[in-house]
Design a protein that fits this description.
Helices cover 37% and strands 14% of the residues. With 413 residues, the chain is α/β, with parallel strands linked by helices. Helix 4 (101-110) links the parallel strand 4 and strand 5 (118-122). Helix 4 packs parallel to helix 5 and helix 7 packs across helix 9 (269-279). It starts with 7 loop residues before the first strand and ends with a strand. Bound molecules: nicotinamide-adenine-dinucleotide (NAD). Residues 12-18, 35-38, 41, 87-90, 102, 105-106, 109, 124-125, 157-159, 161, 264-265 line the site of nicotinamide-adenine-dinucleotide.
Amino acid sequence: MSVQRPQVLAIIGQGYVGLPLAMAAVDAGWTVIGVDIFAAKVTQINGGSSPVEDISDEQLQAAISKGAYKASTDFSTVTQASVITICVPTPLDQNREPDLTLLRSAAAGIAPYVSNETLVVSESTSYPGTLREIIIPIVNQLKPEGSRNIYFACAPERVNPGDVVWNQKNTPRLVGAIDEDSQTRALTFYESICDAVVSVSAPEVAEAAKLLENTFRLVNIALINEFTQLCSASRIDVHEVIDAASSKPYGFMPFRPGVGVGGHCIPVDPLYLTWWARQNGGSAAFVASADLINREMPKYVAQRALSLIHPGIKNPRVLILGVAYKPGVGDVRETPASELRDYLKEQGAEVAWHDPLVPVWEDSIPVDLEWECDVAILATMQPGINIDRLISRGVSILDCTNSLTGESSVIAL
Ligand SMILES: NC(=O)c1ccc[n+]([C@@H]2O[C@H](COP(=O)([O-])OP(=O)(O)OC[C@H]3O[C@@H](n4cnc5c(N)ncnc54)[C@H](O)[C@@H]3O)[C@@H](O)[C@H]2O)c1
């Protein structure tokens, strides 16, 4: 066993995953270095202003002022760390295939500074084999000569931004490492931060489990989005159907329809799975079909909204309420509101939007609720939207969130 090293953690990437992890680790007694390539973000964080909703400025400032946390653009700072976690984005490229550019550059960034006996963990979501086939070869090739023993594990992050119940601490953490020593170290590290740690036999199991979790959500959302269209065509209230089915005490889990799927995870991760299937000579047709159904959903929503407007109006004014991909966050990555807006415009509509948590969206700014419109689409039930104001004006609202009931001007998706 190695000599005891100080509890210094380096986290690569200070976004929705990395910064909350940093604060959880500070709470658990770690000294944390947050490395990020985005200099303006590092300056903002070190100035005590949190870029993510789940971390308050006060919490961040407290961690900084007690000397337990600092952000940096300098990869050489990771030399001090006994544990390095990688929390950088794993998006899709133009062909909607895995783009591991940032993950590779994070691995290459830390490699020259990894000290002997350091544990390197990937928390980024990716296909099975990423740790073993991509990250480890890069680190081993570029690491200092003296860093003979480096330990590697995968512990995919499951955080759900905006969730007031589940967080880094109380969400069970999957840990799968490449060998016994790495597994022991990774379990010890996560046990110091999380309430529950689930040990799996290999990094590939942890990587695959993360893809399964998010693909499970994608296909169930697609199922209910398709089912909603069938019910609507037959004038059946899909929400009453879902409530009815939910009375079954086993074997059913309710999902609700919506404008589509958004964010960095649900629309993206299942395509890592379909790509991985193709690499192995297989296919994931069911997942691909679910992806397609969800991507068509904004068009269906637009058509439903336009059907509520008098056909004589040639250039209807449509207000989209809530453009973030889910309530409680200002995150517009992959938001289906983009396709919704584009399709409405293609149909000749004039489109404006309102979202109290989003100051700017794709170079446009929001309007207030006095904006005259022919129909409003409640895409995301964002806290702070004064929906009563619209209702009192008698505006027709297509509610895609199942949150408004009992108003004659509100039509549920
Ligand atoms: N956001 C979520 O809800 C969520 C939940 C679970 C898992 N994940 C996964 O976690 C990973 C990170 O996602 P996120 O939402 O935190 O992303 P994010 O965009 O919020 O933050 C990532 C940060 O990494 C920085 N960065 C990019 N490349 C870098 C590099 N080479 N070196 C240092 N910093 C770099 C960016 O500047 C950014 O600040 C992804 O794989 C994602 O799929 C995200």
